[in-house]
Every structure is written in C-alpha cells, then in structure tokens.
Amino acid sequence: MSILLYELVGADAARPFSPHCWKARMALAHKGLGFATVPVPFTEVPTVEDGFATIVPVIRDGDHRVADSFAIAEYLDAAYPDRPTLFGGEGGRALSRFVESWTQRTIHPFVSTSRALVSIHDSLAEPDRVYFRQTREKVFGKPLEEVVVGDEARLEEFGKKLNPLRSLLEKQAFLGGDTPLFADYIVFGAFQWLRVVTPWQVLEAKDPVAAWFERCLDLHGGEGRKVSAAA
C-alpha cells in the first residue's frame, strides 16, 4: 500500500505550493518510496486524518501517521534504513536543523512578504481566500497588497543574504556534497514555493543557486517538475 502524503493546495488541486510539503515529497522520492498525494485546501487542514494534526504535510504509512516535514524525514530514515539516507548520520541530521533555521529566517520571510503572498491568495478557492486574508492581515497588521509593496527593492538585499549558500554551491553540486540530502530539500522547498506561485524570477540564470535549483528539479525523475512553473 502506498504512503499517503497530504499536501496544501489552492483551487487547483494539482498545484501543491507549500515549501514544507515539497520537503516531504522530495524526501519520499529520495527514498524511492511509492506514495499518493491527497490535496488539502487551507480550511480543510484541521480535518486531515480526523484531526490528527493542525498542519500539513502529514503522511500515513500503514498504521503510522507523522506530521511536520522534518519529523517525516526522520521517520523515513528510521523506518527505511536500507534506502538512501536523508541525513547521512546524526551529524547530518543536526546540520539539517541549522539549514532549516537559516532557511526559515532568510528565505521564508522574503517570500512571505513578496508578491508571492498575493499570488497565493489569488490561487485559492473563495473560502480559503477569506481565511488566508484574515489570518495573514492579522499578523501583518495591514492589507496583503500593502505588505508586498517594495519587494523589487528588497530583492538585492535578499540576494546578498544568499551568499553563504552561493559560496557553498560554487564548490559542490548539492548541500549534501556530490548527492543531495534532506538539507537540500529544505532549501529547495522554499524556492519551489516561489516557482509554483509566481513567475517572478528572483535568481539570475548565472547564479550558482539557480543552477543548483535546476539540478534539484531534475532529481528523482524530475519530481519537482511535475508541477509546472507559474505562468
């Protein structure tokens, strides 16, 4: 029986966009495990697996249910040790926590205050649009359209913040070295989030980060390319 992966989607059930769900999807593909996806809009997240979690991704693997992308990766490495490792050992798992923290403090804040924010809203079905706008505007204290003003001006500074990542990828193909590890999927999920929701190009073609992202899109039979870029 295939593993079930619950993914966040908008009005188009075939276009999952959550960076965390993409981490889980790539982890499953990395392990070579068969899985089926279950599309979940924002307002139905609390109903997943009879209220098992308040977030997605969630996986069901037989009798096992796991929520949170990092916990899912840890579960997969423990449950399927004979398949390609996601962490390469305890040290890699600990370093992946650092990568997760860096990504959520560097890439996610930029994406979530850029034009992607409005694009996500516009991609949702009506009940989810209401929920998304209300919850996000409560956090930001102003309309979504005002939050994203000036994102083009912030792009240069965002690019500078990628220099640690850029420097590493000038020397090796993946964060994991010659082959990817879960750390790669953590960062990949953030850029895939942008790719799926907006055609805005934040990386120049010559950027080592852009070249790495293209390599990630090609991994595991092109898993990342199964959802086309926003037009």
From TrEMBL:
Pfam families from the UniProt entry: GST_C_7 (PF22041), GST_N_2 (PF13409)
Domain GST N-terminal as annotated: residue spans: 8-84
Domain GST C-terminal as annotated: residue spans: 89-231
SUPFAM superfamilies named in the record: GST C-terminal domain-like, Thioredoxin-like
GO CC terms: cytoplasm
PANTHER family for this protein: GLUTATHIONE S-TRANSFERASE OMEGA, PTHR43968
Protein name: Glutathione S-transferase
Organism: Aureimonas glaciei
